[in-house]
Write a structure and sequence with these properties.
Blueprint: E1 6-11, E2 16-21, H1 23-29, H2 32-43, E3 57-60, E4 74-79, E5 86-91, H3 95-101, E6 106-110, E7 117-122, E8 125-130, H4 140-150, E9 156-161, H5 164-167, E10 175-177, E11 181-183, H6 188-194, E12 197-204, H7 213-229, H8 231-239, H9 245-250, H10 272-278, E13 280-284, E14 294-302, E15 310-317, H11 319-325, H12 334-347, H13 351-366, H14 385-397, H15 401-406, H16 410-417, E16 425-426, E17 429-430, H17 438-446, H18 457-467, H19 472-492, H20 504-513, H21 520-540, H22 553-556, H23 566-580
Parallel strand pairs: 1-6, 7-12
Antiparallel strand pairs: 1-2, 3-4, 3-6, 4-5, 7-8, 9-10, 9-12, 10-11, 13-14, 14-15, 16-17
């Protein structure tokens, strides 16, 4: 049996599990996203409650995991409690190689446990551990440390867990894996919490065979060389994605103060260059990655009442965190921003949704839509870090009706209190950090993942800015072609930062080595098929492209490509789905 085709299905309700060979899926859809969407369709009944027992969690990896550089991601699919349709999130770290080393291409988790539980999966052994003693620990980092001590054994291991936000069913709670990687978007942490599932520990010591060791060595060396010599990868190593702050600020594409503005003269304070020079503590890489794009800041603070005694907190940062908890909130004080990132990290929240939610409530209070009584005495104002820290805690604990609404996202909050015109969500998910032009927002609206990684609309805008423009028709075609190809990359599963390295011809070569024989033209066709499958699931669960709410704020604030037209956006969305055949 091809070990990648082995699927482990776990039922939390009766604490049972089974193994299946799904060669049919892995041979047709490769792995990762392609296999995950089919497993989700098979296991998620139409209309299932995202926080109910019928909503499955699917983890899937691909044939390049454990073999090639930058093939380091795990795809998670589920029905999103935030949007009510497809939830998809990718995480790096050791998660993918751990799942494959344990002998699986996918893991499906169904049902709900009566009592708190965590799963221990080691090779072919599955254990249901009592998590009553760690349920209630709000710090996801502490949870990881405890399980690391409890679970002994050799091999490559990952610990995926939730903090307080997941337990409290905040609809944009995330799942943390290792210490600095996350299944960040669309509320997987809340799905964990609804199942009383505190964590999953997966480990194994299996190996991966190749069909031709000489060809494997040749292709491996070539990909490794491209990765370490690429100027783009060097940028990611030196500064991480935080290097995007200044270029986006320069072209007025950096959302600032809830997108009232698209740049700030203070942006340099939170730039990747400034963080690297003054705060960088270390860099971390995902498994089998030579780039090390994960940047960790060392925040040194004095202990109160203890002269000459300091504590150092290690805090991860990247572009999206800096945007959402920095410029979006008018926070240009580095140490204040890092404290916000640390708070989000501890509770296990999606930083992007959290920042956009806090930006909305700040403006809503400015406009008199929410009162001081409703905010429990807090006066939100741009740049006020202490108030935002208190706000995060109130959201996680759902202290009152306002914070309960905020824990469900800005769409829900604006429906209750008003302010939909500046509630920056697309398809129900809070916006990522790109106001580069119309194509970015089109990709946010139509995206299969509803992530900043959908279709690369921001890069199409930036190319159009350099070339002098792009027609709506051409933009839609580029979006479709790019997103279809990203389905192949996320089925392999390859980090999207490496999309310039894993071109179609290279993908064909490495798949040959891994035992998959697919022609280049078949790959693009398959990418479109996977994209269609994902959109069919979305529409099945209520997604309607003709009824998408578009926040008017994006038309009010000029982007890097100038003013954005609502008619252009809506026509392009319609055209996108027409061309896709959905």
């Amino acid at each position: 049996m091809n070990r990648l085709s082995r699927v482990l299905t776990i039922n939390l309700s009766d604490r049972s599990f089974k193994f299946e060979d799904r060669s049919d899926l892995f041979e047709k859809y490769i792995g990762g996203a392609g296999v995950a969407i089919k497993l989700l369709e098979d296991n998620c009944p139409e209309g299932a409650d995202p926080l109910g027992p019928d909503n499955p969690i699917v983890f899937a990896v691909g044939p390049l995991v454990g073999l090639y550089p930058l093939a380091s991601k795990t795809v998670a699919m589920f029905k999103s409690p935030l949007t009510g349709n497809l939830g998809e999130s990718h995480a790096g770290g050791r998660s993918a190689v751990s799942i494959r080393s344990a002998g699986y291409g996918a893991i499906v988790i169904k049902g709900v446990s009566e009592t708190p539980v965590y799963l221990s999966i080691n090779n072919g052994d599955v254990r249901f551990r009592d998590a009553s003693g760690i349920w209630g620990i709000v710090n996801s980092i502490t949870v990881g440390r405890i399980i690391r001590e409890l679970e002994k054994g050799s091999g490559i291991r990952t610990i995926m867990r939730i903090g307080g936000a997941g337990e409290q069913l905040v609809k944009y709670a995330c799942v943390t894996t290792e210490t600095y990687r996350h299944f960040g978007r669309l509320g997987l942490g809340a799905v964990f919490g609804s199942k009383k599932l505190k964590a999953i520990c997966v480990g194994g010591n299996g190996s991966v065979d190749v069909s031709d060791s000489n060809q494997y060595r040749k292709t491996y060396d070539e990909i490794y060389r491209k990765a370490v010599e690429s100027p783009l990868m060097k940028k990611y190593h030196d500064y991480g994605t935080a290097a995007n702050i200044m270029p986006l600020n320069l072209v007025k594409g950096l959302p600032t103060r809830n997108l009232k503005e698209a740049s700030s003269p203070e942006a340099e304070n939170i730039s990747g260059e400034h963080l690297a020079e003054k705060y960088l503590g270390r860099r971390v890489a995902c498994a089998h990655c030579p780039v090390a794009c994960i940047h960790i800041a060392a925040l040194r603070e004095p202990y109160e009442k203890e002269l000459f005694f300091y504590k150092t907190t290690m805090i991860p940062y990247d572009y999206e965190l800096i945007y959402s908890l920095g410029s979006m909130l008018g926070v240009f004080d580095v140490e204040g921003m890092l404290k916000l990132i640390d708070k989000v990290e501890i509770y296990g929240l999606d930083a992007m949704s959290t920042g956009v939610v806090l930006a909305w409530v700040t403006e809503a209070q400015e406009k008199g839509l929410v009162s001081r009584e409703e905010t429990m005495g807090l006066k939100y104002s741009w740049g006020d870090v202490d108030t935002y820290l208190d706000g995060i805690e109130n959201i996680v604990k759902k202290k009152n009706e306002l914070y309960d609404c905020l824990a469900s996202g800005v769409d829900v909050a604006s429906q209750r209190y008003g302010g939909a015109d500046f509630a920056l969500a697309f398809g129900g998910n809070e916006m990522p950090g790109y106001h580069t032009g119309p194509v970015a927002h089109i990709s946010h609206l139509v995206g299969s993942r509803h992530s900043h990684l959908d279709g690369g609309g921001y890069s199409i805008d930036q190319s159009a800015l350099k070339s002098g423009g792009i027609s709506d028709e051409e933009a839609v075609k580029k979006l479709l072609d790019e997103e279809a190809w990203r389905q192949i990359l996320s089925s392999l599963v390859v980090c999207f930062f490496a999309r310039g390295i894993y071109d179609p011809e290279t993908v064909k070569q490495v798949l040959d080595v891994a035992g998959y024989h697919v022609e280049v033209d078949e790959l693009q066709w398959l990418g479109y098929e996977i994209l269609k499958e994902k959109n069919r699931f979305k529409i099945r669960e209520g997604f309607d492209p003709e009824k998408l709410r578009i926040p008017s704020r994006i038309f009010e604030t000029a982007s890097s490509r100038g003013a954005i037209s609502e008619e252009e956006i809506r026509n392009s969305v319609t055209n996108y789905f027409r061309k896709l055949g959905i």
